[in-house]
Fold each of these.
Amino acid sequence: MSSISNSAETLPVIIGEKEYFSGIDKISYEGRESDNPMAFKYYDEKRSVAGKTMKDHFKFAVAYWHSFCGTGGDPFGLPTKNFPWLSSNDPIQQAKDKMDAAFEFITKLSVPYYCFHDFDLIEEGASLSESARRLEIISDYALEKQKMSGVKLLWGTANLFSNPRYMNGAATNPDFAVVAYAGAQVKHAIDITIKLQGENYVFWGGREGYMSLLNTHMKKELDHFATFLHMVKDYARKQGFTGNFFIEPKPMEPSKHQYDFDAATVIGFLRQYDLMEDFKLNLEVNHATLAQHTFAHELQVAADAGLLGSMDANRGDYQNGWDTDQFPNNIYELVETLLVFLEAGGLQGGGVNFDAKTRRNSTDPDDLFHAHIGGMDAFARALLIANEILENSRYKSLRETRYGSFADGEGKTFEEGNMTLETLADIAGRNGEPPLTSGKQELYENLINQYL
Ligand code: XUL
Ligand code: CO
């Protein structure tokens, strides 16, 4: 473990033909007394917490789509961010410029991983074969950059939601021709993920859902979806891919009703269609809140099923109801999240990917640094606090005591499934009305504040 973080110390900053973030050096850890906005106050990649370095706990990743492609357009206005790496009209040159900017940013920030959709890397071509040719060129370029920098690919995925052909779904499209097209696209995305030694592969089903049940054969679509996932998994395994597949639940947007609604729904689907062996979950904060859950709830559901794979870090907005994808900064909520994370023993194969974007009016190149530094520091600080709570407070023993009546005797016999309903009824008859026992919620809530 320490050898990994030691090698990180020497990871070079990779600058292409042009320096896009000039005036910004490698970001380093300066500690909480520092008031340098371009330094980490809490994220010290080499610091060990609960037996692991911060770097290994989180495996932070930068999301290609938000940070290097998202130019701030919204339904009411034009793009606001004039990213210089997007200025070329030649798609191949543009993709290379964008990758130069990406690796300069990632290595200056010392983030060990990145994530992409196929057509974040390079603009989709006019045909499948032209797209494949472009992906070949840019993945060669990425491989070189990865080798030079030591930066790794946390996961790859295919964009099966932006192109109009997917307006009725990709793998769940009612037209087989579209399903086949999606298959070809995923095959290429898997190929480049393997080529770049991607550690995982993600499915977020943006258009896998429906707008109206009146024109939708739900059972057929879900059967097709499962058949498609089996095919992809079989292909990838045949090509030697040993990583995880992750499904990323989201309840709505862009479809009114998405099939991968939340963690519990996805787990039921994986179990029903015999996909539990190869698939785990990639959970996203703002998707959890759209499903009316806390993020901690979603993590716990996945952890309890042994499927806590990866995380898309961001936050929503309490005053509006959509996927705002803001950078995380709420320490109290992150502590709740990291309590579950630490008790689950961390993530299975995945990492913490910043699926988050700077605001439309954050238009300076350094805003991208402030956003990521803030998110990484918030996670690091919350990790330290969550670990303190687990190691030094009454948190665990309080909760254990709450369930103490199952620790031995008749409660234990019940828990082990060795009791009949008749016996249960006899016990109640013998005991009479049970006393009221306080849940002490406020006491637990105060514990977090006490350790902040
Ligand atoms: C959309 C979303 C995606 C996935 C990858 O809300 O989260 O960016 O993470 O397709
Ligand atoms: Co996401």
Amino acid sequence: MSDHATLTVNGITVELPILRGSCGEPAIDITTLTAQTGYLAYDPGFGNTASCRSAITWIDGDHGILRYRGIPIEQFATKPNFVEVAWLLIFGRLPTTPELKDFSAKLTANAHLHEGLRHHFEGFPVDAPPMAILSAMINAKGCFEDDFLSSDDQQFEDAAARLISKVRTIAAYAYRRAKGLPVIYPDPKLRYIANMLHMMFSMPYDQYVIDPDIEAALNLIFILHADHEQNCSTATVRMVGSSHANLFASAAAGVCALWGPLHGGANVAVIDMLEAIHRGGLSPEDVIRRAKDKSSGFRLMGFGHRVYKNYDPRATMLRDISERIFTKLNRQDPLLDIARKLEALALADPYFVERRLYPNVDFYSGIIFRAIGIPTDMFTVMFAIGRLPGWIAHWKEQHDQPGGRIARPRQVYTGPDLTNYTPIDQRPAPAG
Ligand code: CMC
């Protein structure tokens, strides 16, 4: 196989090196393209662009394969906990027992929020979107940190533990504020996820009883969301981090990128769509018809993916969890039946088949969150808590790579050519 690609443009021939990832995927290295030819590479949405080298997560979209640090996602179905996976992603290998104990202890020790930080919540309107609060509070948390650009591994681990621990407290406080409920402080006796459920659902006079099956389901949901290579929010974290912005500012930017309905916000949009069908007036068939009609501007939410052209393995696992949770809680949700119907219709429809559109991670997650009692506007916050270790891992990887450059894409300019300034009294009135 050739180790370079030859490109001829406008009479200039250049040889561009070919790189291969550790699982074989080839990439043409165009770092010298503009210098050698004067041409830019045009790739809106970056669908063809590898923006970095990364050793964290591998996806084979054609075969529906996802691996964290080489480990297939399916192997996380029963054994490890989210904290262990977070450590794996950030530090590149599975932790030893003392390392995991130490990291868990750091999470426990850092669960509280500085009282000064807690008072920030009072400034938000009660109906403020929790994703806005989460982003603002992560950034505010940065004001309480000092040296978080340190390349010292121990200091970095401490900062990562503080961020992972406090983000869950921030999320719980945002929920309590929206509900007008008193803040519940973290309980050091509880593990990571149980503590989050406690802070969200306990009352000062009534301790929330942790159901181990719910804790296990949330554990797996967080693991499934923990990283997904260069998705929009992770690419944002790396983009912001490339200017040497600190970890907290970079993660806050990641939350904002995740918020949109084409990314993490899809888990809310899916439930809105299923509820609209459930209310009546719109059938699953109508929804499929609208999704296929380009003039409608509507998409089947929770379907399709930039990389997966096969079943998203996370969606398969989430569908299984949803079945387990509903059986365990002995509950039914009409939205689950509607989701299954929509899925079956889409998978049998040539429009979706030809475009290789399958359910993604957001299709079933919201239904599980609902069953657990998490309100819809907190769904994307749950995604953010799960994705945080991935963001931290990418921030660290980029920070540790020698010779890193600021992310600074170019553009194909389409504005006016050279134009002279016209004084205001000589400007013609706008047409119409
Ligand atoms: N419903 C209907 N048509 C779709 C959908 C959909 N959900 N997704 C893609 N298509 C069509 C699209 O119109 C295009 O058709 P054509 O070739 O005729 O122009 C074709 O499929 C390719 O789509 P694309 O827009 O080029 O795909 P993309 O890689 O730019 O977008 C996506 C990926 C996930 C944004 C998109 O599939 C989508 O909008 N899905 C719905 C929102 C969603 O579920 N987002 C969650 C993504 S996964 C987890 C996450 O990131 O949070």
